[in-house]
Specification:
Oligomer: single chain
Radius of gyration: 39 Å
Strand order of the largest sheet: 1-2
Number of strands: 2
Organism: Brassica campestris (Field mustard)
Shape: elongated
Keywords: Repeat
InterPro entries: E_motif (IPR046848), PPR_At4g14850-like_plant (IPR046960), PPR_rpt (IPR002885), TPR-like_helical_dom_sf (IPR011990)
Protein name: Pentacotripeptide-repeat region of PRORP domain-containing protein
Largest sheet: 2 strands, antiparallel
GO molecular function: RNA binding
Strand content: under 5%
């Protein structure tokens, strides 16, 4: 310890016996550090007193804390107690406060010091109680701190501030601020800056405005810390003009002031240009730049996807020596990744002197193809993954369709306890749904502790996308009982109902009623799903009603109604809606054009269809997909223009698909063209050897043209390859004996029903009556057969 630190201590002579002085000197000598110079020890022996010893102990603990050595500070405090220097004689309230500060959130040591302060009666000092509360707050035992606070008779502003800074929830913290005002607490700069950090959302912003008016009245608006907090508060609330006004009104601006404005603008999304201007102004005025300055301006590049500025900032970071810092490096990686320059992001990663979990997570998200290997390297580096890491990894595994790796990751998440977290569970549900492993998706769903509506939506969507419509409906009914459905819930379940013939339309109507009850009928996603559901289930009038009730009609809505009209073969309504959509300057998308082309196909309007098909690339710069080409091939084929259809198939990028070839095969049968039909059939049979449709179509072509040998050959090939014709199924709704709505399916030749003989007899009778009706119509007779 330096000499001057000892010379500052004033020693007072006291009239004690030689024995007492010798005993006291021995006690003090034991307290001193081992390297204390001997002449300083002699000075202490010559004139020691209780106050001098206490002052020295406090000074020693404070110095240890200043040197960031809390263990040494606690050792000095503990050594005094172990040597038998009784509490009130050698330790005072300052000593206790310093010791509690040295605990640094260590609950075990903190509780021991707290116990000593209670036993020694030091808790009567409000500063000691404040220190105890601060210790518990840092240790994560905020309930203990709050309990102590509520027991204080006369808390000071520090007491209130200690509790205020410990809240996690904004709403609870803001309520506490209101309580402070009601209790007459005089706010200081720390109170305002802490309170403003919780002022988020509409209510928080309102409270922040009230605090601002109080600050102006109390004259604290010139305080640098308070002013910086207001800049942050206004920026976070999206009121950048007010943030700039507070900034401009400040006479003294430190680096934090500039960073507060820069950070707010960079998070504003569309204010990247202003953020860059502020950064340049900082440099022009010679304001010191730190890692916060660089991370903020780099964030702007992420939002704007501005590669040029990103490279300039990167160069400046290298020049100033900030590029290797973790926070700066992470933002540079993210910026390059968002700009699509993954190689540059990888280069920044390998140049970083230190990497944390964010660094590795960014690398995993940016390099989906190598995500799994990067994850293993991360674990070898001793970095423990977090939720975001696993979400990025699961997404990469899903995109790469790495089923085995996905199962392994699920196992790791179960072992590490992440599987029960909603965000991780939702990711696994989506992944398994993509892999068509619905049982595993359900297991992932069941592992989630707290199931929010997002988790339910993921399961409903997974079932719907994989064709399990009835399971999707059941999951929706369970979700409605456990949580409040949102627009995505209804979007998925209505899609399931729309695509499933074995689900009654009444379930869709019940969903509609639930939507009206929740007030979601104005949402474009929900309205479009409703419109589509009614159209696919044959209720075009209900679709029109939903469409007419919508106040705002965007591209998605117009496409939905056009698709509805197209599916019902209403060519005139399709074309009029399409024209009205274009007149309102709403650009059609690929789905819109597909619906219009489908309508042209069903109506046989080949030339109009060709015109619209050409306008996709000519007028809207849209590249036709396989579905558009398939529709045009079918349109030409139905019209008998088989040669043109064949030529168009050659132009399809990547070659024709099975559905397009099957459509062409159907046209060949319709027009009796076995030559082209044989070529098309061979292609289909080569691509899908087990698909019965192509064999049946080719058999019918040969049979209708009297080519029985070729037809028999098709039959032999089917038997040889064990190809069986799929049985068609129909569905019907009925009310059972208990009054419940039930749907039943049946197929040709099905005799599972107990009254199947009576049913087939009635079907035959209806068939005969239909034939008679047709004969009557042909003969022109004016009577009706009953």
């Amino acid at each position: 310890m330096k000499k001057k630190n000892y010379l500052r201590i004033k020693f007072f002579k006291h009239q004690n016996s030689t024995a007492n002085r010798r005993a006291e000197g021995k006690r003090i000598a034991r307290v001193l550090p081992e390297n204390t110079p001997s002449h300083h020890v002699h000075k202490l022996f010559d004139g020691s007193s209780q106050r001098n010893a206490t002052t020295y102990i406090n000074h020693s603990i404070s110095e240890s804390l200043r040197k960031n050595s809390p263990s040494q500070a606690l050792a000095i405090f503990t050594k005094n107690l172990q040597l038998g220097l009784s509490g009130r004689n050698i330790v005072n309230e300052v000593t206790l406060c310093l010791a509690l500060k040295a605990c640094r959130g260590d609950t075990k040591l903190g509780c021991q010091v707290h116990g000593f302060s209670i036993a020694s009666g030091f808790t009567s000092f409000v500063c000691v109680s404040n220190a105890v509360m601060g210790m518990y707050r840092k240790a994560g035992r905020f309930d203990n701190a709050l309990c102590i606070f509520e027991s204080l008779v006369d808390p000071d502003v520090v007491s209130w501030n200690t509790i205020l800074s410990g809240f996690d929830e904004d709403q609870v913290a803001m309520s506490f601020v209101v309580r402070m005002r009601s209790a007459g607490v005089v706010f200081d700069a720390f109170t305002y800056s802490t309170a403003l950090s919780f002022c988020v959302g509409f209510e928080g912003f309102s409270l922040g405005l009230q605090l601002h008016s109080i600050v102006v009245k109390t004259g604290l608006e010139s305080d640098v810390v308070v002013g910086n907090s207001f800049i942050t508060m206004y920026s976070r609330g999206g009121s950048f003009r007010d943030a700039r006004r507070v900034f401009d009104e400040k006479v003294v601006k430190d680096m934090i002031t500039w960073n507060s404005l820069l950070s707010g603008l960079s998070q504003g999304g569309n204010l990247g240009f202003e953020a860059v201007l502020v950064f340049r102004e900082m440099m022009r005025q010679g304001v010191e730049l730190d890692h916060v300055s660089f991370t903020s301006v780099i964030t702007t590049c992420c939002h704007e996807n501005d590669l040029k500025i990103a490279r300039q900032i990167h160069g400046l970071c290298l020049k100033r020596g900030y590029a290797t810092l973790v926070s700066v490096g992470n933002m540079l990686m993210t910026s390059y990744w968002k700009c699509g320059v993954v190689e540059a992001a990888r280069s920044v990663f390998y140049e970083m002197s230190e990497r944390n979990v964010i660094s590795w997570t960014t690398m995993i998200s940016a390099n989906k193809d190598d995500a799994v290997s990067i994850f293993h390297k991360m674990r070898l580096d001793g970095v423990f993954p977090n939720e975001v890491t696993f979400i990025g990894l699961i997404n990469a595994v899903k995109c790469n369709e790495q089923i085995k790796e996905g199962v392994k990751m699920h196992g790791i998440c179960i072992k590490t306890g992440f599987a029960s977290k909603p965000s991780i569970g939702n990711s696994f549900i989506t992944m398994y749904a993509k892999f068509e492993a619905l049982e595993d998706a359900k297991k992932a769903f069941d592992e989630i502790n707290v199931k929010e509506i997002i988790s339910w939506n993921a399961m409903i969507s997974g079932f719907a996308q994989n064709g399990f419509s009835l399971e999707a409906l059941k999951m929706y009914l369970s979700a409605a009982a456990e949580a409040t459905p949102n627009e995505y819930t209804f979007g998925s379940v209505l899609n399931a109902i729309a695509s499933a013939e074995n689900i009654s339309l009444r379930h869709g109507q019940r969903c509609h009623a639930h939507i009206l009850k929740l007030g979601l009928n104005s949402c474009p996603v929900v309205s479009s799903a409703l419109l589509d559901m009614y159209a696919k289930r044959g209720s075009i009038d209900e679709s029109e009603k939903v469409f007419d009730e919508m106040s705002e009609k965007n591209q998605f809505v117009w496409t939905s109604i056009i698709s509805a009209y197209s599916s019902h073969g209403d060519f005139e309504s399709v074309m009029s809606s399409f024209q009205e959509m274009v007149n309102q300057n709403i650009a059609p998308d690929l789905i819109t054009f597909l619906s219009v082309l489908t309508a042209c196909n069903r109506k046989g309007m080949v030339d109009k269809g060709y015109e619209i098909f050409s306008s996709m690339t000519k007028d809207y710069c849209l590249e036709p997909s396989h579905e558009h080409y398939s529709c045009m091939v079918d349109m030409l084929g139905r019209a008998g223009r088989l040669k043109e259809a064949e030529e168009l198939m050659i132009e399809v990028p990547g070659g024709p698909g099975v559905s397009m070839l099957q459509s062409m095969l159907g046209s060949c049968r319709l027009h009796g063209n076995s030559k082209i039909g044989e070529k098309v059939a061979e292609l289909v049979m080569e691509m899908e050897p087990k698909l019965s449709g192509s064999y049946v179509q080719m058999y019918n072509i040969h049979a209708e043209m009297g080519q029985w040998e070729k037809a028999a050959e098709i039959r032999r090939r089917m038997r040889k390859k064990d190809v069986k014709k799929e049985i068609g199924t129909s569905w019907v709704d009925f009310i059972d004996s208990e009054g419940s709505l039930t749907t039943i399916g049946f197929s040709s030749g099905d005799k599972s029903h107990p009254k199947s003989d009576e049913i087939y007899g009635m079907v035959e009778t209806l068939g005969l009556e239909m034939d008679l009706e047709e004969e009557v119509a042909r003969s022109g007779l004016l009577f009706r057969v009953v």
